[in-house]
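---------- Forwarded message ----------

FYI, see the 7-dehydrocholesterol reductase record below. Original note from H. follows.
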Amino acid sequence: MFVVFCLQVPMAAHKEIQFSETGRSKSVMNGTGNSQGQWGRAWKVDWFSLASVIFLLLFAPFIVYYFIMACDQYSCSLTQPAIDLFTGKARLLDIWNKTPQLTWKAATLYTAWVIFQVVLFMLPDFCHKFLPFYRGGVQEGAVTPAGIVLKYEINGLQAWLITHALWFANAYHFHWFSPTIIFDNWIPLLWCANILGYVVSVFVMIKAYYFPSNSKDCKFTGNFFYDFMMGIEFNPRIGEWFDFKLFFNGRPGIVAWTLINLSYAAKQQELYGQVTNSMILVNVLQAVYVLDFFWNEAWYLKTIDICHDHFGWYLGWGDCVWLPYLYTLQGLYLVYYPVQLATGSAIGILLLGLVGYYIFRMTNHQKDLFRRTDGNCKIWGKKPQYIECSYMSADGSKHYSKLLTSGFWGVARHFNYTGDLMGSLAYCLCCGLEHILPYFYIIYMTILLVHRCIRDEHRCSSKYGKDWKRYIDAVPYRLFPGLF
């Protein structure tokens, strides 16, 4: 079931490795031929899913515009624009006429940015050759519903390091452009991001019909709106290595996340002569999550986005627009309303964010360790407990896996999401309690992750059948032990 607030974009903090399984599964042919796989998005569309899809296609772009416009024209008030429109003090045309339009400067900047990230994406990775414990270079993904295992060039950390090295070299030495350039062109860049999001979404849909990368991993429901949003192709590619899903999930939005925050900090310095401790906290805490994503990019190949989601508007537009514009609202708010936190408050927020990150990272580390060793490891000093399970792929193969029930995964079935929510709350608390706008993130993430729990477990139930029932009996809570 697809619900209204399920629009999600990739980020390490928002991913779950594929259903706690080891990834060392073996397969045997069972003679079923080209039977359909038991996972991936829906083959048929119910009326509620279709209504939700149409709602998001119509209103998600407006939601992003509303938030950015509220900061630009209404001092970050979410209610005042609606009140003015309702009472007749303002018209939609008045608000639109005050909105900065697309400029050639913004178009040039954005085009250069995307091309630069494409170039970095296609480079071979060198970081894994000199960074201990970093898994980069050519890595294998998970088996697809059609039974295919794709290879990926993992080089996101390298791209992030090169990009940020050039950013700081410009800021402190070359001075080619102002560090505030992103903030200064923020709304014109929004139109560029929307154009790219829609162009990519239309292209991959046409590609799925006329030249798919693998026709056996395509799903056609016959409903244009659902197929456009949720995607038809599982792993659309151009050539052997340019993978749309990996590129748009990881670049250019996530690489830009930390640059956007740095530009906000530079603007705060320009306007007020200082960078507040709240802005520093937002930069540091969100940078931790971004770096975690790129350090563990090989792990990301086992997440829901790569293993189960098809590539359509849902990921294409979401990665281009939703992520960079709504995940950075805290920094944007602090440009308009600088907050200097008391020392005790700053330390408390920092600890909340770091503890949340620790829970998130260690939870995923336990699962990754369990998968890589096929259960031959220790978790919390003990041999891990697990449930043996099996599932079918579309090529008729039967695969065997293990569902972990030890460590954090014995506390709750999605305990990494619990740590994620703690980190999300820390971002918002940096902004004080004056406005609701920066708290959109924790509200959205709560709705998103609760829905993802339900959605993912529906897929797990379809994939694993009675084995999944044994798993939820062993680990009865989803997020919060004793509550949910």
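H. also flagged this: DSSP finds 20 helices and seven strands in the chain.
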